[in-house]
Specification:
By secondary structure, the protein is of the alpha+beta class. The protein has 13 helices and 36 strands. The strands form 8 sheets. It has a 15-stranded antiparallel beta sheet with strand order 19-20-21-22-23-24-25-26-28-29-30-31-34-35-36. It has a 7-stranded parallel beta sheet with strand order 2-3-1-4-5-6-7, sandwiched between helices. Helix 4 runs parallel beside helix 8 and helix 5 runs parallel beside helix 6. The radius of gyration is 37 Å and the shape is elongated. This is Peptidase S8/S53 domain-containing protein.
Length: about 775
């Protein structure tokens, strides 16, 4: 036995193997798979894995991590039998296994069948090697013609086991009867007989995947066989089994075609390459045989398309277990269509469809839809894009859903993990970049001002620019304002590309410190907005004032970040209406306001796939409180707080149970007249608007049954709260310098972007501007 195995290891056409402990088991009836299993946390990078040739090259780990091991799937191996005493097969040799050419038992006389079985399904047991489908059931059919293997001579490659087509056909028929999903035939030779072709056709009709080796005549040793095409036996098998057949060519560990392998030729559409060169290892007495020569240990490896075929057969078994809805033809299609391209681009005459890629075959293919709904939900893009107020929402908890791909395969997807985080705020950069030119005029009760900003300075924001002369460098693109006193104690203002909060502040005569990073909550919507137009009207009421305001615009995105985009896009429209009351008594002033924000298609600036939320849109209510204290000449302290509630507009799979709570705040201290009468030093500590609590309640498919092809629905919550809480601290100075206005800033942010894992950042900025 050992001599034969050692010789076989050095032959290109054959392979060897060792034994298995434990008796045969009955072939199990594959049960319908439950909903897709969560990815197990298993480390497959073991010594056993590294000894195994094929799983790494063909990315079997992608399937294993998804829970596919071949369990419950029968792989029929029609060959020279199997060593039933090898522990690699313990408990997994089907009782349907038999000698179909005689009555000799299934023990392999030359080790070839054993070696094929090892490649397909050797156990994962921390010893020896492991096969592609290491939990699969092996149905071994010994089909070698009695007496032919006894003449095997390792020195003479023309000797070896012989097979009758009628015996192979009997093995094929019994494989179908035993429920085999995959049939591996690592044999070659002449065209199959009509009896065998009929058996192969019946197996294909029954849904079995048939994998046949391409042949080992690549170096032209047999003048009767064209090495540029598969050998006649493989071609005949393909013609009989059609779309259920894969012809297996061999590549080496670098995915280069083996010199001994027959090529794809005219049958490239059904030709798939897998590792069949230098495949470890030959077994003796249930373990890898090692030979010591001159103090060095050697193991025997095997070569041949015989061992490429079971790599593919094992991959087919993994697919059959993971997705029991697949037909044999669909499994073949997935393996061929998702092959890793090799050789000339696309299907070619050497590699055929390419090299086996199990990970790609397991990935969703075609249009993905929500199970039970048929509603398309793309996996090519994020489930949604959150806004700055949501930070890194989706990092806390999971929101599972079941999707079906174009093959009806069910996948468990974490929608929370597929949210795209908000883009970082760019207020600081925008406040420094670009240039601006402004002008203003005043005639009695009528005033007007405008600013034209160059470059990319026209950034989004609900508050700035105020269009005061000292803030001209912060003006948006083509921003303008007109104000008029229309009656005693009544003023009205209209703004273009300016937020209503800026108009309110100017009508009240507010004079706030300019900060580059730390926002004032009353101007913070939780996302960037591009204002189209705004208006405000204020009425003095004898010691206090009442202001009504409104604005329209659009949620900012890169498509709108264009200085030529004068009008907001209709699909991202927003509108905000507010009312506020302000009063001053002595050194203290205060204001209290409420506003309503309506978004047509977004949720606090975030957007989600329409399959989940329908048309989208949301309504928000904000309550704002601000107070200031002029403690002494030159000193001022301020406090601002915003509290908000946002309710998404129900649609798609979203119920109406969602309600988001948001908040933001700032504390200021300012000292005027530090170096000159006009300069000011100010400190602000603030938290930009943040989603404090709330989640989308989605009615999602949470389980799937392949047997009934039905989904179980359940309410899943998609949390929109971030993991962190940004706290910005900024020290700013502004004042006249060299005939212009200078501003300097030092800042530090903890949990920038409301992301707990983000490192604190700090920076400094210096800006100088001059009106012309």
């Amino acid at each position: 036995m050992l001599a034969a195995l050692s010789a076989l290891a050095m032959l290109s056409a054959c392979g060897g193997g060792g034994g298995s402990g434990g008796g045969p088991i009955s072939t199990p009836t594959p049960a319908p798979a439950p909903q897709p299993a969560p990815t197990p946390d298993i480390d497959f990078d073991t010594a056993e894995f590294r000894r195994s040739d094929g799983p790494a090259l063909h990315d079997a780990v992608a399937a294993w991590q998804d829970g596919a091991t071949g369990r419950g799937v029968g792989i029929a191996i029609i060959d020279t039998g199997i060593d039933p005493d090898n522990p690699e097969f313990a408990g997994r040799i089907s009782s349907a296994s038999r000698d179909v050419a005689g009555d000799r038992g299934i023990d392999s006389p030359d080790g070839h069948g054993t070696q094929v079985a090892l490649v397909a399904a050797a156990a994962r047991n921390d010893r020896g090697v492991m096969g592609m489908a290491y939990d699969a059931t092996i149905i071994a059919f010994r089909a070698d013609l009695p007496g032919t293997c006894q003449g095997f001579d390792p020195v003479n490659p023309v000797t070896g086991c012989s097979f009758n087509d009628s015996d192979i056909a009997r093995g094929v028929n019994l494989a179908v009867s035993a429920g085999a999903r995959v049939i591996n035939i690592s044999l070659g030779g002449s065209n199959p007989s009509s009896v065998l072709r009929s058996a192969l056709a019946s197996a294909a009709e029954a849904g079995a995947v048939i994998v046949v080796s391409a042949g080992n005549d690549g170096e032209g040793g047999d003048l009767s066989i064209d090495p540029e095409n598969p050998d006649p036996f493989a071609i005949g098998t393909l013609r009989a089994g059609g779309a259920n057949v894969i012809i297996a060519g061999s590549v080496d560990a670098e995915a280069q075609i083996s010199s001994f392998s027959n090529k794809a030729g005219r049958y490239a559409a059904s030709f798939l390459a897998a590792q069949g060169e230098d495949v470890c290892c030959v077994y003796q007495d249930g373990q890898i045989y090692t030979e010591t020569r001159d103090g060095t240990d050697f193991v025997y490896v095997v070569n041949g398309t015989s061992f490429a075929a079971p790599q593919i057969a094992g991959a087919a078994a993994l697919l059959a277990q993971a997705f029991p809805n697949l037909s044999g033809a669909e499994i073949v299609s997935l393996l061929l269509d998702n092959a890793r391209d090799a050789g000339e681009r696309g299907t070619d005459a050497i590699y055929g469809r390419g090299v086996l890629d199990i990970g790609a075959a397991f990935a969703p293919s075609g249009t993905t839809t929500l199970a039970g709904h048929g509603t398309a939900l793309s996996l090519a893009t994020a489930a949604g894009s959150v806004s700055p107020a949501m930070g890194d929402a989706g990092q806390q908890g999971t929101t599972g859903a079941i999707l079906l791909d174009g093959y009806g395969r069910a996948y468990s997807v974490d929608l929370a993990g597929r949210l795209r985080s908000a883009a970082p705020r760019r207020d600081f950069a925008r406040s420094l970049m670009g240039s601006a030119r402004g002008a203003s005029l005043q005639a009695g009760g009528l005033g007007a001002s405008f600013a034209v900003a160059d470059g990319i300075h026209g950034g989004p924001g609900g508050g700035p620019p105020q269009l005061r002369s000292e803030d001209a460098a912060q003006a948006q693109l083509l921003a303008a304002r007109i104000s008029a006193r229309i009656a005693p104690g009544t003023e009205v203002a209209f703004g273009f590309r300016q937020g209503a909060s800026g108009l309110e502040a100017s009508l009240r005569g507010a004079d706030r410190p300019a900060f580059m990073v730390a926002q004032e909550p009353g101007t913070d919507l939780g996302f960037a907005a591009m204002n189209a137009g705004s208006m405000a009207i204020r009425r003095e009421m004898g010691g206090w004032g009442l202001t009504l305001s409104g604005e329209a615009g659009a949620v900012w995105n890169e498509r709108l970040d264009d200085e030529l985009a004068i009008l907001p896009a209709r699909r991202n429209r927003l509108a905000r209406y507010g009312v506020s009351a302000d009063a001053r008594k002595g050194a203290i002033d205060a204001s209290l306001g409420a506003s309503w924000l309506h978004e047509d298609t977004t949720l606090l600036g975030g957007s989600f796939q329409s399959a989940l939320v329908g048309r989208g849109g949301a309504d928000s209510m904000f309550l704002d409180l601000a107070a200031g204290w002029d403690a002494s000449p030159g000193w001022r302290f301020g406090l601002s707080v915003r509290q908000g509630l946002t309710r998404p507009i129900a649609g798609g799979l979203m119920t109406d149970a969602a309600l988001l709570h948001t908040s933001g705040w700032s504390i200021d201290a300012a000292r005027s007249g530090i170096f000159t009468r006009q300069d000011r030093l100010a400190l602000r500590v603030s938290q930009p608007l943040r989603v404090e609590s709330g989640a989308l309640a989605l009615n999602l498919p949470v389980a799937y049954d392949y047997a009934s092809e039905s989904a179980t629905m359940g309410i899943s919550r998609l949390s929109l709260s971030p993991t962190g809480r940004e706290i910005a601290t900024e020290l700013s100075w502004e004042g006249p310098v060299w005939g212009g206005t200078a501003a300097a800033s030092l800042f530090m942010r903890r949990d920038p972007g409301h992301v707990a894992s983000a490192s604190a950042d700090m920076g400094a900025g210096l800006r100088w501007s001059r009106a012309f």
